[in-house]
What does this fold into?
Amino acid sequence: MKIWGQIIFVLFTLGITIYHNYSHGESVFTIELLFYWALAWFLGRQYDKAKHFEKIARLSEKSYKNLLDSLPSTIIIHKDHRVIYVNDLAVTMFRAPNREALIGKPTLELVTPKYADQLKKRTKAASSGNKPLKSIEYKLKRQDGTTMDFEVSSLKIIFEGVDAVLSIGKDITEKNEQTDQLLQKSEKLALLGQMAAGIAHEIRNPLTSIRGFVQLFKGDQDQNVYYDIVLSELDRINNIVGEFLFLSKPTTTAMQERDVKKLLSDVVTLIQTQTILSNIQIGMEYESNLPYIYGDENQLKQVFLNILKNATEAMPNGGTIELKVKKDIEKGVLIQFTDQGVGIPKERIPTLGEPFYTTKEKGTGLGLMTCYKIIENHHGQLLIESEVNKGTTVQIILPFASEALKETGTSF
It folds into this structure.
C-alpha cells in the first residue's frame, strides 16, 4: 500500500503550522505542531487505505466483468427493469453495434409483447428471493428486428454496490428449429403411412366395382347401362390420386395481390347453377373498402369452391348459404360461410382435415385437408364451428397483402 497520502498530509500540515507560527513570532516547533503532525499522519493513512481499497475494488470489479465476458453464456444484469450490464456474448446475440446500445434499455423492450407479463413476474420473484429461478424460455427481439428463442435463469446479486438481477442463458433458436424439423419429419412419416393405407382402401372400393362390371361385360347381353357407372368410378379414382398428388408434391404458385371480393364472385358464379338446381340460395354481404389479400388465385378459388360444395351437399332439402366478408385490423380479412345443413357432431370437428376422415358417405377427407394446407401456406387460418341439425360455419382469416408481404420479405 502506498503512503503518498500520509506524506502529503504531513508536509502540508507542517508547512501551514510553521508559516502560522513564524508569522505570529511564535516558536516554530511546539507541542501543537506535534499534535497536528500526528493528526495529519493518521488522516493521511486513512486516505491511503481508502484509495488502496478503492483500487482493489476496481480491480475486483474489472476481474468480475472480465469473468462475465469470458463465460460461454449470455449475461444480462438489470435493475428496476433496465439493463445495467451485458457481456460480450449478449452484444453478439442481440446483434447490437456495441454494449452501450443495450445498457440503459428497458428489459421489457428485449422480449416480444407476449412474454412481457411473464418477465415482470420473474424479475419480481428473482429480486425478492435468494435462490436462482428455474430456466424458462422467452422470445427475444434482436436489434435487427428478428426474434430468437432464449432459455434463461435469473438470480439476485450485488453489482457495483447495489441490488440487481443477473439473468444467464443461451440462444436455443437453432435447437428448437431442429426439434421442430424432427417432429415434422416424424409426423410426415406417420401421415404418409396413414395416407397410404387410406388410399389403398379408397381405390380398392371403386376397383372392385369396376372388376364386377367388367365381368358382366363378358356376357352376351347388352350391358351399356354399366358404362356410366364404370366411368364414374374411374373418375373417382382420378380425383383421389389428384388430391393426393397436391398434398405430396410442391406446387407452383402465382402469389400476388388479390381482390377477395372478385375471387368469391367468380366462385359463386361457377357454382350457382348447381345451387339453383339444389334449391339453395347464396346471400353475399361484403364490407366496403376491403383491403387486398396476397395469394394464388387458383388455390384460393379451390378452397372457396370446396367449402361451398360441402355446404351445398350438407343441405339436401335446400336452404341458404350466407357469405360474409369483413376486415379486422388485428387479424386480417375475415371470410365466413354459414349453411343451414345437417351439421357436424362436436366430437368429430377436431378430426376434420385429417386424411380419409370425412362425414360424407363417399368422401376421402383429402379435399378439406387440401384447403387447410392452402390456407396455411397463405399464412391464414381455417376455423370450423357446427351444430347438428342447425348448420355449419367455416371462417377463413387471411392477412392483408401488406402484412403478408412483410412476412415473405417481398416489397410492392
About this structure: The first strand starts at residue 74 and ends at 79. The mean pLDDT is 77. The first helix runs from residue 4 to 23.
